[in-house]
Write a structure and sequence with these properties.
The chain has about 200 residues and is an alpha/beta fold. The chain has helices spanning about 55-60, 65-80, 90-95, 100-110, 115-120, 130-140, 150-160, 180-190; strands at about 5-10, 20-25, 35-40, 45-50, 85-90, 145-150, 165-170. It catalyses: GTP + 4 H2O = 2,5-diamino-6-hydroxy-4-(5-phosphoribosylamino)-pyrimidine + formate + 2 phosphate + 3 H(+). It is an enzyme of class 3 (hydrolase).
Length: about 200
């Protein structure tokens, strides 16, 4: 990976967040990844969420995943805490792209789990990478964080980038009839720390 540097920072107010919010772009990343800085990002450890783009969930509120709910929850926690950073990675559909994600959804309606569906389409079961997030945090001069995640792969990737994770804070459990099979596949195949019994 090329050296990652800050490119542009612009303040854009966000509805529902009473703190200053700044969007940051970067040089040296392979996609249009960006950071959203909320309030105070200097008090350590910085509350942090690494979020992979999910257009269907983040924008349209899809009930087939928990992505949009996790995003809203993280922003709410950051607002309540007085600051935080969201690293938004443009790697839709576990890295396979939006159109291929639609194809994977068709297979999932036949009972195939999300990871196997990606493999049936000729992709890795999860093509995402999180090293870019580590490089972006370093470019922001953020090296000590509290990380909101259920995904152990994110923890390992950031630790490999010499980001110190003070605490790992689990995301909420956002169970719907439509996403239960999806959540179980994340638990069984990728060891996500999701307790589905909490919402029973």
């Amino acid at each position: 990976m090329k050296a990652v540097k800050l490119k542009t920072t612009v303040e854009i107010p966000i509805e529902g967040i009473p703190l200053p919010t700044r969007f940051v772009s970067f040089e040296g990343v392979d996609k249009e990844h960006f950071a959203l800085l909320i309030g105070d990002c200097h008090t350590l450890p910085v509350l942090t969420r690494i979020h992979s783009e999910c257009l269907t969930g983040d924008v349209f509120g899809s009930r087939r995943c928990d992505c949009g709910a996790q995003l809203k929850e993280a922003l709410s926690h950051m607002s309540e805490r007085g600051g935080g950073v969201l690293i938004y990675l443009r790697q839709e559909g576990r890295g396979i792209g939006l159109y291929s994600k639609f194809d994977a959804y068709v297979l999932q309606t036949q009972g195939i789990d999300t990871f196997t569906a990606n493999e049936m389409l000729g992709y890795a079961d999860d093509s995402r990478e999180f090293e870019s997030a580590g490089a972006m945090l370093k470019a922001l001069d953020i090296r000590h964080i509290d990380l909101i995640t259920n995904n152990p792969a994110k923890v390992l990737a950031l630790q490999g980038c010499n980001i110190t994770i003070n605490r790992t804070l689990p995301s909420g459990v956002f169970l719907t009839v439509e996403n239960e099979r999806y959540l179980r596949s994340k638990i069984n195949k990728k060891q996500h720390t999701i307790n589905l019994n909490k919402n029973r």
